[in-house]
Amino acid sequence: MKKNYKIGIALGGGAARGYAHIGVLKAIDELNIPIDFISGTSIGSFIGALYASGNLTQFEEEVRNKNSFIRDVLFKLDPIYPKLAVMNGNEVIKVFKKLTDISTFEELDIPLTTVATDIIRNEKVESNSGDLINAIRASIAIPGILSPTYVNDILCVDGGLIDPVPLESAIKMGADRTIAVNLYGLESSEKTNEKYNIIDIIDRSAKIVLNNITHLSFKFNEPDLLIEPPIDQFKGFDFHKAKELIDIGYEEGKKSLLENKLFI
């Protein structure tokens, strides 16, 4: 596609729900939409880095074969003595290193910005040069779950605390047209009170907060296209449901892109 504008995509956080990003990016590739810039928060930074390195398809093939949260995910996250977190999360980095030898932002095929949170100063920390692996580690550091990471002497945790869908970062990179993928879009729950449990309450409460933060940020920077895969029924630890999440992301992504017409 010949164009005289730059397209940026912002991939939001959402833990396991981030597998939906794979489907959205598949739809983008299928429709031959060239992405010039990527920004990512948390799992969005991880998926964005794999896409920018050209290794996302290989990762998709691997995760589609996972079917056990306990065997394939939980026992590979390196439990540690809970001083700052209960897990190191080294397995996530091992997966990335297994798929590619790329270790710096400069080696990526597409410019990428990852977002983390300065836990001390309550500020956004953007990384787009130098050590890619450390930047991803910081961006995915879910507070209390995965260990915080220092970025340039700044103690960082998950970027979702401060910028769940980092659209501003994509614009700062030079994007003229933008796509934002929000994994916290809420559907009306059909559950009655007696069907809720404590996990449901905590999970939905977090979604409400993060979805509201995201849409408030869009008042300052509105995306040209907002994609919100209907994945409200999935929880952040549903890593064993990769196939369903990828397929939903693909269907919603393709539908939204074809209806929008701005990018095709």
Protein architecture, described:
The chain is built from nine helices and ten strands. The protein is 38% helix and 17% strand. With 264 residues, it is α/β, with parallel strands linked by helices.
Going by helix content, strand content and strand pairing, the class is alpha/beta
Report the C-alpha radius of gyration, rounded.
Answer: 17 Å
Helix content: 25-40%
Overall spatial form: globular
**Low-confidence runs:** none
Measured between the Cα atoms of the first and last residue, the distance is 8 Å
List the helices and strands and how they pair.
Elements: E1 7-11, H1 19-30, E2 37-41, H2 43-53, H3 56-63, H4 69-72, E3 85-87, H5 90-99, E4 112-118, E5 123-127, H6 132-139, E6 144-146, E7 149-151, E8 154-158, H7 167-173, E9 177-181, H8 198-217, E10 225-227, H9 242-260
Parallel strand pairs: 1-2, 1-9, 2-4, 3-6, 9-10
Antiparallel strand pairs: 4-5, 4-8, 7-8
Please provide a brief summary of the model.
The protein has 264 residues and is an alpha/beta fold. The protein has helices at 19-30, 43-53, 56-63, 69-72, 90-99, 132-139, 167-173, 198-217, 242-260, and strands at 7-11, 37-41, 85-87, 112-118, 123-127, 144-146, 149-151, 154-158, 177-181, 225-227. The chain has nine helices and ten strands.
